[in-house]
């Protein structure tokens, strides 16, 4: 048996019901929609959140919170986690993704000052906290903000 020889079993795929195609079809004139009313008209479907005229749930619940348009999201990495890299490594967001410290596709990376660092590294990221920059430079490294 070849792929082009496969066919569905007879009767397993009934023909499409074509309504509104003349009185002789049995589904002419009103096409099975009944007489008048919203459901008989084209586009007469209530939305998925319609609750019979009752105030919908998304309007009854209070709205909370606000995110400013210029709010920036950072992937956070602690200074202590940078100790896994060998000395003189240039740590960039791509290197952090390869090391598994940051997920791929994160918009920006920020280094925080938690932990200790004893290896001199060049860190090129989007943002660095003051304490993290101090610890990196204390270990003999450099901080470059991109």
Write the SSE topology.
Elements: H1 57-60, E1 75-78, E2 90-91, H2 93-99, E3 109-112, E4 122-125, E5 127-128, H3 130-138, E6 142-145
Could you explain the architecture of this structure?
This protein is an alpha/beta fold and 146 residues long. The protein has a domain at 75-145: Ribosomal Protein L15, Chain: K, domain 2, CATH 3.100.10. 14% of the residues lie in helices and 14% in strands. It has helices at residues 57-60, 93-99, 130-138, and strands at 75-78, 90-91, 109-112, 122-125, 127-128, 142-145. The strands form 2 sheets. The chain has a 3-stranded parallel β-sheet. It has a 3-stranded parallel β-sheet with strand order 2-4-6. The chain is elongated and about 90 Å long. It starts with 56 loop residues before the first helix and ends with a strand. The mean pLDDT is 92.
The CATH topology label of the domain at 75-145 is: Ribosomal Protein L15, Chain: K, domain 2
Largest sheet: spatial strand order = 1-3-5
Our Rg estimate from Cα atoms comes to 32 Å
CATH class of the domain at 75-145: Alpha Beta
Shape: elongated
Summarize the structure.
This protein is an alpha/beta fold and 146 residues long. It is built from three helices and six strands.
Output the keywords.
Ribosomal Protein L15, Chain: K, domain 2; 3 helices; 146 residues; alpha/beta; 3-stranded parallel beta sheet
């Amino acid at each position: 048996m070849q792929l082009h020889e496969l066919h569905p079993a007879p009767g397993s795929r009934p023909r499409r019901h074509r309504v509104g195609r003349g009185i002789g079809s049995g589904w002419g004139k009103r096409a099975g929609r009944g007489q008048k009313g919203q459901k008989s008209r084209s586009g007469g479907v209530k939305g998925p959140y319609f609750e019979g005229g009752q105030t919908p749930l998304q309007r009854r619940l209070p709205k909370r919170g606000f995110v400013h348009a210029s709010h920036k999201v950072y992937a956070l990495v602690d200074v202590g986690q940078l100790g896994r890299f060998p000395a003189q490594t240039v740590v960039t967001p791509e290197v952090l993704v390869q090391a598994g410290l940051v997920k791929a596709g994160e918009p920006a990376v920020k280094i925080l000052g938690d932990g200790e660092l004893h290896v001199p590294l060049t860190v090129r990221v989007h943002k660095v906290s003051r304490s993290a920059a101090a610890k990196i430079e204390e270990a003999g490294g450099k901080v470059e903000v991109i």
